[in-house]
């Protein structure tokens, strides 16, 4: 049989296995091994141990468990809950104030955890009952929480950016620097949407009533702000600043971030043995899942290339009209559609290794393209029917929250994400000016 036919069958079978519920790593490795053994010279698999060894000894990937530990510890210690209370009361005088506070907490948690599931579940459990009690619209509440929780996908130290650096062969520092402004632009657009909603439909986002606000004086709130909100912000600024400024490698900065998170939680008197055990367990679980997928993807990638699949992808992109822009738009559409059905890590390790070499050959700025891809992958968390943020929220939401409330709530935020992707495509300097200003590019 033609090897390229086998390559197509391998990709189709992979998607079928994932949709049937087979764990991602087993689906990737299983499809790769099955079709590789049928159509690839067995000598090619002699390269597999070296490739797996390369993944496991990749110094940069050490940043993953360290950043995961930092974020999960801040989440398990319930510092996020205190941050939301303080910011909500500080901004609660005006309509939409609580929703804006959730977006700000989403920025802080996203920049500390990089893990969407942890952020969305935390925000849902601590914020959704509060929003419902304060008569916020069900759909606006759900949409705001889901969208804010996904900011960790684009704001450094996002796991998406770390793995994109590994896949594309780019340094992490420039990617982190390039992601900062688009991530903040996206969060800013979310806030603008809430402000407009408060002007034209204030009944959807009512202010916190005077009685509740009067329980705390302004002085007490600002003291709590410096105790609960400022330390995580300083930690995030120090960690990201040291990476983007070139003072520390990502792994070194991540280790200092993990130590800083331990210190903050200890000083806030929230560090217990149970919290530490839970944090370590969750860190091992998340890291193990990511590394297992990384190893499985080596099997798939080796088989795909052995079946001449890379030439197949090149021919496909060569047939697309519009040259460079046609290829970029086609890739972005494919990623967006796949986001309706697959998780970001599946898309990253199935699609990107196949298409990124084509854009390398076109001499496209891979930093800019990487940010476009990261923004696109972020939208996969919000797109029905299989957006993972929607599942995370529904899993812990009160019974009165219907699935349609969640779907309706995320639609404006998906539209905002598409607009921001369009802006970064048309104006690449949104992503590239900071790396250039620092001297990374």
From TrEMBL:
The keyword Secreted does not apply. Its main location: membrane. InterPro entries: DctM, TRAP_DctM. This is C4-dicarboxylate ABC transporter. Residues 11-430 form the TRAP C4-dicarboxylate transport system permease DctM subunit domain. It is found in: Cell inner membrane. GO terms for molecular function: transmembrane transporter activity. It comes from Halarcobacter ebronensis. GO terms for cellular component: plasma membrane. It is a multi-pass membrane protein. The chain crosses the membrane at residues 6-38, 50-74, 98-128, 140-165, 171-196, 225-247, 253-272, 284-304, 324-342, 349-375, 409-431. It comes from the Bacteria. Keywords: Cell inner membrane, Cell membrane, Membrane, Transmembrane, Transmembrane helix. The keyword Transmembrane applies.
